[in-house]
Amino acid sequence: MKRILIVDDSFYMRTMLKNMLTDAGYEVVGEAPNGQTALELAKETKPDLITLDVILPDNTGLDVLKGIKAEQPDMKVIIVSAVGQEVIVNEAIENGALSYIVKPFSEEKVLETVNKVLEGNGKN
Amino acid sequence: MKSREQEYKEIFIAEALEYYDALNRHISELERKPQDDQVLAEIFRLLHNLKANAKAIGYLQISDVSHKLETAFSLIRNKELNFSDEVVTVLFDGIDLLGDLINNIDNDSFGEADPVLLRNLDIIVDSLSDSTIELAKVQKYNTSRNLSLSDLIYIQIKKLDHLLNLVGELMIDRDRILSISRELENDDLKSVSSHLYRITEELQYSVMDARLVAIGSLFNKFPRIVRDIAVAEKKEVNIELSGQDIQIDRNILQIITDSLLHLVRNAITHGIEKPEERIKKEKPREGQISLTARSDRDNVIIRLTDDGKGIDLKQVKKAAVDRHLLSAAVANELPDIEALSFLFEPGFSLAKEVTEFSGRGVGLDVVKNAIDSIGGRISVDSVKGKGTTLTLQLPTSIAVKGALLFEVDEIFYAIPLMHTESVVSLDKDELHEVGDVLVANIKGETITVAYLHELLNAKETAMRLGDKTKLKGQVQDIIIVSYNNRKLGLIVDKLYRQQDIVVKPLSKPLDKIDLYGGVTLLGTGKVCLVLDVPAITRYFTNRR
């Protein structure tokens, strides 16, 4: 079972994502509401994939992404953002994020993106 | 079962209200420090989340207003818009509107948002810095509104605990005054004390009422929990709830929370079968659990039913024999209902394996102890192959209990009504000496009967509970108590009446005597000991 870490400061968003992912047979190994916890959980749980919200209370998603990549260069990260944040998303992709999901997201879109990234050979 | 939509909605509203409160705090802060980047970033984040969440769940008006405010704040952040007084007013109004929208999600009569305010927001967002001139002409939202405080307050439970204790003390004094006024035959005192009686009674019920919470606050957590356990156990389970509106003392609910969680886990891990197995047994693929609550006079009855594999009585009896709790011969003749009682014995578990969710070594005895501690009862009923039902009978309130008062050797005692089944009078000749106890046939059942005078007063070494010659008089008054499906008759000297009592814990050194559960003071000023029925029943079970 593929293991996923969810990073999002909204409990509502985390719950939706978690339900969608667990329903599809993924294991959600952790939920981080801020950047600090995200970095700790990424190290601790070593997930197969991280979904990362770009706006977090303590630091930006971009900083968190760089922090994760510095420790675990092969970690697969999907950016979760809202409309109007294309600049940040682009920057995240340049910094090693493999794909992105735009809020509000549909279950199909989430699963499609997650499946695709997890099925990739992880060379990115 | 509460739908996932309902769950999402509840989470959305709770989080949105949190965001709304935080927005109010931060915008006041911003008024004092207009260019504080951190505060601006935080406001931006809160609005951003609110927008995204509202859009996801489909509250488009909330998402629209959040979006406008978010844009306005990002303009302020980029110094494209001044945080002037006029702008501040509109932003405050906008945040108030968000609060109104969130609070009125379920209110169909809540109309559209004030168009003037929406227009003001548009002006700020669209026309940038020269907007203030236009704004002054149109802004008029809610300026005449009164400040309103919430009708609800939060109160620490320990303050209510204290209040209830004081009421308990007051009731004891009240009963004492009532009794003195009867002795003194003073009409004025009688009238005052009967008024005092009514007031105290009303006070008692008001305080008890203030501590009541809807049982739904616990029940509603279960759909999610059931889902998680079912997924981990690779089972398909649906839970149905009813009676969420039933009210119960908050501390009682707190005490049974872990127990109920344990029972639900058990039902899924040990009760409900895997889908393949269910299909083989011609049961619906999806297992069914129902959790119901209902009121029954002063009690709340919680019932947990599953349609799983049920409890194998043969296995229970075998386990009881293996653990030397009873002999094989006795086990064969044991009625089903008594066999099931063994499930509540300490350390008695039929589970062969420990799973993530069923916990380790915690058996039904722990659940039983929790229920006992609040004076409740638990019983189990099961049909092999069909399923299991657990019934919890709980008092609505902890402090005051209905009790039956009686006298033994000129001392007053009380037994909580929760444990009394009936009261019978038997002729001495209907009692039979069997071994070292007395037994009687009461309504077709053979019941062990104990002479309380001997049990409570004789030294352990000289105690002769099976000796009829100790009995006084020909006709014996017997209170039938029951605990864990086991009945026991207690012979008393004199029966009094039923009364609500306030049970106080025993102080040292009496607290070591485990036949007593507490003490209460009667109106006459006399001390009355409250018998601990579980302890007395256990005493006899251990002798057997």
Automatic annotation (TrEMBL), chain A:
Signal peptide range in chain numbering: none
Keyword Ribosomal protein recorded: no
Annotated SMART domains: REC (SM00448)
Keywords, alphabetical: Phosphoprotein, Two-component regulatory system
Top-level taxon of the source organism: Bacteria
Ranges of residues in domain Response regulatory: 3-118
Protein name, UniProt field: Response regulator
TrEMBL record, chain B:
Source superkingdom: Bacteria
A Gene Ontology molecular function term of the record: protein histidine kinase activity
Domain HPt: 1-105
Reaction it catalyzes: ATP + protein L-histidine = ADP + protein N-phospho-L-histidine
Keywords, ordered alphabetically: ATP-binding, Chemotaxis, Kinase, Nucleotide-binding, Phosphoprotein, Transferase, Two-component regulatory system
Domain CheW-like: 400-542
EC number: 2.7.13.3
Protein's UniProt keywords contain ATP-binding: yes
InterPro entries: Bact_Chemotaxis_CheA, CheA-like_dim, CheA-like_homodim_sf, CheW-like_dom_sf, CheW-lke_dom, HATPase_C_sf, HATPase_dom, His_kinase_dom
Domain called Histidine kinase: residue spans: 159-398
Pfam family, one: Hpt
Residues with Phosphohistidine modification: H48
Purpose: Involved in the transmission of sensory signals from the chemoreceptors to the flagellar motors. CheA is autophosphorylated; it can transfer its phosphate group to either CheB or CheY.
Name this polypeptide is given: Chemotaxis protein CheA
Source organism of the structure: Pontibacter ruber
